[in-house]
Automatic annotation (TrEMBL):
<keyword id="KW-0805">Transcription regulation</keyword>
<protein>
    <recommendedName>
        <fullName>Homeobox protein extradenticle</fullName>
    </recommendedName>
</protein>
<dbReference type="InterPro" id="IPR050224">
    <property type="entry name" value="TALE_homeobox"/>
</dbReference>
<keyword id="KW-0371">Homeobox</keyword>
<dbReference type="InterPro" id="IPR009057">
    <property type="entry name" value="Homeodomain-like_sf"/>
</dbReference>
<keyword id="KW-0804">Transcription</keyword>
<dbReference type="GO" id="GO:0048646">
    <property type="term" value="P:anatomical structure formation involved in morphogenesis"/>
</dbReference>
<dbReference type="GO" id="GO:0001654">
    <property type="term" value="P:eye development"/>
</dbReference>
<dbReference type="GO" id="GO:0042659">
    <property type="term" value="P:regulation of cell fate specification"/>
</dbReference>
<comment type="similarity">
    <text>Belongs to the TALE/PBX homeobox family.</text>
</comment>
<dbReference type="InterPro" id="IPR005542">
    <property type="entry name" value="PBX_PBC_dom"/>
</dbReference>
<feature type="domain" description="Homeobox">
    <location>
        <begin position="153"/>
        <end position="216"/>
    </location>
</feature>
<feature type="region of interest" description="Disordered">
    <location>
        <begin position="37"/>
        <end position="66"/>
    </location>
</feature>
<dbReference type="GO" id="GO:0000987">
    <property type="term" value="F:cis-regulatory region sequence-specific DNA binding"/>
</dbReference>
<feature type="compositionally biased region" description="Low complexity">
    <location>
        <begin position="47"/>
        <end position="65"/>
    </location>
</feature>
<dbReference type="InterPro" id="IPR017970">
    <property type="entry name" value="Homeobox_CS"/>
</dbReference>
<dbReference type="GO" id="GO:0000981">
    <property type="term" value="F:DNA-binding transcription factor activity, RNA polymerase II-specific"/>
</dbReference>
Length: 288
């Protein structure tokens, strides 16, 4: 029986070498290697994390980039550790189960003849069953890496494309043209130049802004009033002296009380009384 077992192991090795690799497993392995989770070195992959976080951190301070790179690398290290622990458990379970089946077949060979071909076929069935577990493990690991990249890199990169100053410029244009918030191509190019972003990003921003404005009119109206107040405050610096009241934050100031009239002018909005005070009658007859 020992000779038969040796032949079985040799034939199994030959069939495994002849069988084409699973394309799904190859794709998952390539993804894990590219993300630095799998590879020749169990602790490797830091260069992949460094390149990814460096690309996402472009345009920000070195200190902040270093912190985010450290966070990303730490999270990726956790995923890598869990992956290798689960992979080791999988390989151990597969080996133990295969050994268990081989022992059972050895016991059965004492009562009935078992050919090496039968043993080989049984081992292949076991490996196919365990292969689905391996696919699930690697697929869930790839999903975890993609979620990590989305949270730590893609989201940060998306936010960094629009600085606070760029957002102010875009919002100011949007609320200044609220009746027709569709900038022309020339306006988009000018906004892109001022905000240091691309024309495509400007178009996407206005498209998303119009959708958000329609979904939440109340909040958008408050924001519109805020930008209108800023615009009025900016206009108050003009040489015409149209400065808003420093004691009242609203755009429209209430009229002063009637007791504040001077030289016969009524400042309470009564225009006819002011005419009479000047000796003018609206019917063409001057008062005595």
């Amino acid at each position: 029986m020992k000779g038969n077992e040796l032949l079985t192991l040799l034939s199994l090795r030959n069939t495994q070498e002849e069988e084409p690799p699973d394309p799904q497993l190859m794709r998952l392995d390539n993804m894990l290697i590219a993300e630095g989770v799998a590879g020749p070195e169990r602790g490797g992959g830091q260069s992949a994390a460094a390149n990814a976080s460096a690309a996402a951190a472009s345009g920000h301070s070195t200190g902040e980039s270093a912190i985010e790179h450290s966070d990303y690398r730490a999270k990726l290290g956790q995923i890598r550790t869990i992956y290798h622990q689960e992979l080791e458990k999988y390989e151990q379970a597969c080996q133990e189960f295969t050994t268990h089946v081989m022992n059972l077949l050895r016991e059965q060979s004492r009562t009935r003849p078992i050919t090496p071909k039968e043993i080989e076929r049984m081992v292949q069935i076991i490996h196919k069953k365990f292969n689905s577990i391996q696919v699930q493990l690697k697929q869930s690991t790839c999903e975890a890496v993609m979620i990590l990249r989305s949270r730590f890199l893609d989201a940060r990169r998306k936010r960094r494309n629009f600085s606070k100053q760029a957002t102010e410029i875009l919002n100011e244009y949007f609320y200044s043209h609220l009746s027709n918030p569709y900038p022309s191509e020339e306006a988009k190019e000018e906004l892109a130049r001022k905000c240091s972003i691309t024309v495509s990003q400007v178009s996407n921003w206005f498209g998303n802004k119009r959708i958000r404005y329609k979904k939440n009119i109340g909040k958008a109206q408050e924001e519109a009033n805020l930008y209108a107040a800023k615009k009025a405050a900016a206009a108050g610096n003009s040489p015409y002296g149209l400065t808003p009241s420093s004691q009242n934050s609203s755009i429209m100031s209430p009229p002063p009380p009637p007791s504040s009239s001077q030289d016969g002018w009524s400042l309470n909005g009564d225009y006819s009384s002011a005419q009479v005070a000047m000796g003018y009658s609206p019917h063409g007859v001057n008062s005595p």
